[in-house]
C-alpha cells in the first residue's frame, strides 16, 4: 500500500432523502480512493438549504454508511481539526469569501425573476446541472439601475465568469474542456441569503485540505465554476474524479427525492452489505464478476482507471435477486 498521509477525501451528501444505491456507490468509491492511499476520509453534511432537509435523513445516513462498512476520520459525530462538519454551521466562512469576492468586483446583483430565468432555458445558452444557463442580463446594469431595482427586490449575487476557456483532467473521464463563460455567471448567494453550492463546496474543500474529490458525474459541469472560484480566491484545487450515476431499469435517475429504492428498505428485506458491495463493484468495473466481497477486500481492487464511463442501468428485479441471495 502506498502511504500518503496527505491524501484527504470526502463524501459530502445533501440529506434531502434516504440514501439510495447511487449515493451509496459514490460514498463507496470516494472511501475506497482514500483508504487505498491510506488517507483521511471526511464526512461533511451539505445542509445549507434547510427547506429540503430533515434531521431523520442525517441519522439514517450514519446508519446506512456504518452498515456498508464506511467509516470516517473526521465528521459531524467524531469532530476533527476542521469542525464543524455541517455546512449550516459554516456560513461565516462563506460570508467572508463572499465579501472578498464582492469587494474585488467579481460579483454583481441579479434581479431577474424566476420566470425570466426559466426563459433562458430556451435561449441558445442552454441548460446546466444548476438549471438554465444565465444570459448575463444583470451584469451590465448601471449603478443607478441597481439602486432603483433594489428598492423593489432583494437580489441574488452572481460570480462573473472569466473570459477564458476552462479545462481540467478528470481522473475518470479524462480531459474536460469548457468554453469561456460556459453555464453563465452563477449564483453564489441567493436572494434569501442562502449561499450557493459552488461557493460553499469550494470554501469547505479548501478549508478542510481536501486533495481528492470523487463525486457523481452530474457535477462534472460544476467543476469549471468551482475552478474559477479557486482561482479567484487564490486557493489550490483538489484532483477531481467524477463517477457514473446509476439509473433505474426504466432509464430514470434514482432520486432520493422520489423515494426510489432507499438502502434502508433493502436492508430490512435482508440485503447483506457484501452482496451489494460486490454487485456495485462489478457494475462499476472494479470486479469482473458480481460476487459478494468484504469492503476491506475491495480496497486492493480499487483503481480509478477501471471505473466505467457509461451510465449504469440497473436490470429489472436486480434488488430482489440480491436480497434473496442474502
Ligand atoms: N452535496 C452534493 C450532493 O449531495 C455533493 C457535492 C460534492 O460532492 O461536491 O449531491
From TrEMBL:
Motif ('KMSKS' region): 253-257
Protein's UniProt keywords contain Protein biosynthesis: yes
GO molecular function, one term: ligase activity
Glutamyl/glutaminyl-tRNA synthetase class Ib catalytic domain sequence ranges: 7-283
Motif 'HIGH' region mapped to chain: 13-23
Residues that hold L-glutamate according to the record: 10-14, 46, 197, 215
SUPFAM superfamilies: Nucleotidylyl transferase
Principal EC category: ligase
Cofactors required: Zn(2+)
Pfam families xref list: tRNA-synt_1c (PF00749)
Positions that bind ATP: 256
Keywords from the UniProt entry: Aminoacyl-tRNA synthetase, ATP-binding, Ligase, Metal-binding, Nucleotide-binding, Protein biosynthesis, Zinc
Cofactor descriptive note: Binds 1 zinc ion per subunit.
Its job: Catalyzes the tRNA-independent activation of glutamate in presence of ATP and the subsequent transfer of glutamate onto a tRNA(Asp). Glutamate is transferred on the 2-amino-5-(4,5-dihydroxy-2-cyclopenten-1-yl) moiety of the queuosine in the wobble position of the QUC anticodon.
PANTHER family associated with the record: GLUTAMATE--TRNA LIGASE, GLUTAMYL-Q TRNA(ASP) SYNTHETASE
HAMAP family, sorted: Glu_Q_tRNA_synth (MF_01428)
Protein name: Glutamyl-Q tRNA(Asp) synthetase
Organism: Alicyclobacillus fodiniaquatilis
Gene name linked to the record: gluQRS
Amino acid at each position: 500500500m502506498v502511504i500518503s498521509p496527505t491524501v484527504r477525501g470526502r463524501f459530502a451528501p445533501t440529506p434531502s432523502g434516504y440514501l439510495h444505491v447511487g449515493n451509496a456507490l459514490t460514498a463507496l468509491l470516494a472511501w475506497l480512493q482514500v483508504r487505498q492511499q491510506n488517507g483521511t476520509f471526511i464526512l461533511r453534511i451539505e445542509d445549507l438549504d434547510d427547506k429540503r432537509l430533515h434531521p431523520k435523513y442525517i441519522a439514517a445516513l450514519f446508519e446506512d454508511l456504518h452498515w456498508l462498512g464506511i467509516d470516517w476520520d473526521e465528521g459531524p459525530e467524531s469532530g476533527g481539526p476542521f469542525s464543524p462538519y455541517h455546512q449550516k454551521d459554516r456560513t461565516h466562512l462563506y460570508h467572508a469569501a463572499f465579501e472578498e469576492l464582492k469587494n474585488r468586483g467579481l460579483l454583481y446583483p441579479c434581479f431577474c425573476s424566476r420566470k425570466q430565468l426559466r426563459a433562458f432555458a430556451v435561449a441558445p445558452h442552454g441548460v446546466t446541472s444548476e438549471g438554465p444557463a444565465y444570459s448575463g442580463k444583470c451584469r451590465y446594469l448601471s449603478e443607478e439601475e441597481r439602486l432603483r431595482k433594489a428598492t423593489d427586490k432583494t437580489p441574488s449575487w452572481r460570480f462573473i465568469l472569466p473570459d477564458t476557456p476552462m479545462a481540467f483532467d478528470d481522473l475518470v473521464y479524462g480531459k474536460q474542456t469548457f468554453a469561456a463563460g460556459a453555464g453563465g455567471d452563477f449564483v453564489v448567494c441567493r436572494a434569501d441569503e442562502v449561499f450557493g453550492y459552488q461557493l460553499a463546496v469550494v470554501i469547505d474543500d479548501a478549508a478542510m485540505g481536501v486533495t481528492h474529490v470523487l463525486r457523481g458525474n452530474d457535477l462534472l459541469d460544476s467543476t469549471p465554476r468551482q475552478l474559477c472560484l479557486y482561482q479567484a480566491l487564490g486557493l489550490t484545487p483538489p484532483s477531481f474524479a467524477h463517477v457514473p450515476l446509476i439509473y433505474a431499469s426504466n432509464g430514470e435517475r434514482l432520486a432520493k427525492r422520489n423515494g426510489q429504492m432507499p438502502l434502508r428498505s433493502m436492508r430490512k428485506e435482508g440485503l447483506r452489505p457484501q452482496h451489494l458491495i460486490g454487485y456495485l463493484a462489478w457494475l462499476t468495473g472494479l470486479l469482473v464478476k458480481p460476487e459478494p466481497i468484504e469492503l476491506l477486500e475491495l480496497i486492493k481492487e480499487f483503481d480509478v482507471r477501471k471505473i466505467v464511463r457509461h451510465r449504469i442501468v440497473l436490470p429489472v428485479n436486480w434488488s430482489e435477486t440480491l436480497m434473496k441471495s442474502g
